[in-house]
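Q: Now give one record:
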Amino acid sequence: MNGLKILEQAFRLEKTERAPWVPFVGVHGGQLIGVDAETYLKSSKNIVDGISRAVELYKPDGIPVAFDLQIEAEILGCKIVWSKENPPAVVSHPLSEGVLLSSLRIPGKTDGRIPVVLEAAAELRKKYPELGLYGLITGPFTLALHLLGTEIFMKMFEDPDYVHEVMVFCSLVGKKHSEMLLDAGCDIIAVVDPMTSQIDPLSFETFVTPYVSSIFDAVRERGKYSSFFVCGHAQQNIEVMCDCRPDNISIDENIPLDFVKEIALSKKISFGGNLKLTVVLLMGDADDVKRDALACLDLGGDTGFILAPGCDLPMQTPVENIQAVSEIVFDRYLQDYTRNLDKKESKLDIMNMRDYGQSDKVIVDIITLDSESCAPCQYMVEAVKRVAPHFEGVVEWREHPIKKMEAVSFMSSLMVKNIPTICIDGKIAFVSQIPPQSQLIEAIQKRINEKLKLKIKSKRSEILILGESEQECRDITKRVKRAIAELGKSTGVSVITDKEQMTAFGVKKGPAVIMVNYKLKSEVVVPSLEVVKEWIKEVG
């Protein structure tokens, strides 16, 4: 059976001979043909070549033409910054910078990079008539946030009428973009609206439902299918998403698949997901992928389920891992074999975080998928960056994108379950929702007050590791750095292999460890002789 037909069966909630398979090949297509993300997304030929290679390798039933949530925003005046391995990121918000909503115009088929995608869609339609082509548009709420910035959350309460005006405009942009993609040959319109994970169901029904529903209705009037993509911890909104009347909802690993299945089928909506994107597809091996894909297939069942990753594939996702999904989808014998495999032990290196947060500074950790490629992650990182200057010299912030295994280990060590999440000194503070500036400042200040009694005094320490060679010091250096990481300290580590220096420290044989503390005793004022004597007594 051809891919489009089996997808249509799933959308209609008809029993399928197997689950349809839709890899969300975004800039990963660039990796398949050896070009970076910017070069890939600016060329219809590159997109066609990348998707063609993906079709050859992964045998999908459906595939997105392009996965880029900045196309409309760029045309409407948002500044973007390009990355080698991710779609561009929005870095300015015209409606919060004095631009009037009335001055914006709905993009047409000759604007910005829209022609690139339309040309690619038309070529892919001719080349693969039996493949389900997904045309992706930026959801109206995410587009509104691109235009207005995080200011939109405050305006939802202070000026709801204005937010509704913005949403009307963004829904018209979405309808027009959908029409162009359908005219170019796409079969399914996917409304990708990740920022809806940041709001509660009531706000969703007020500010999202009327506008996104009108897009789904317009697609249905064309006799085509629609899907509602969301990522992040959007579990609270699954029911209201279904009430918007798409043909399908697609979620990521933040939301349990059985939870989505129960609600979606009760609403007569098909559902898709939720292969683990980073820990398995990006960083696992083929056996890990087969196990995860099989778990999704067994849970999803044969009615209304579409197997897909939780979001667009990271550029460097190993080809053999995505091929492993295809193998398990099409091979029932391999499915049975995989069910009987012994469970693998976790590769995660869980750190002891009991004493994390004991450094002089308050540490704000942001656990993200990657702020360069994930809109909710980007805006959460920006929220922290905006308040950091209020605490200069007192607060240190760090992003931990879980596209790297050490970040996954750190996330698991802090017992973080959803992304994006903000932790303050190792304690979970804000889960999958961008905090208003005032709340974030209050939470950080509360920790400062608890920890340092209103004022942090400068204090430094250093660990010296002494030995006759770097090789001799290697193991103890590794252990010391691990201890520093688990404590969240910023202690310096120096390795000394000079024999004269070792002798000066009284060390005859290595490896040896010396702890050095630097404590601020005086600043600006010259202390008296008696005070200096007391200081000297403290150090013997």
Q: What stands out?
A: Residues 454-459 have pLDDT under 50 and may be disordered. The CA atoms of residues 150 and 379 lie 7 Å apart. Residues 460-518 form one domain.
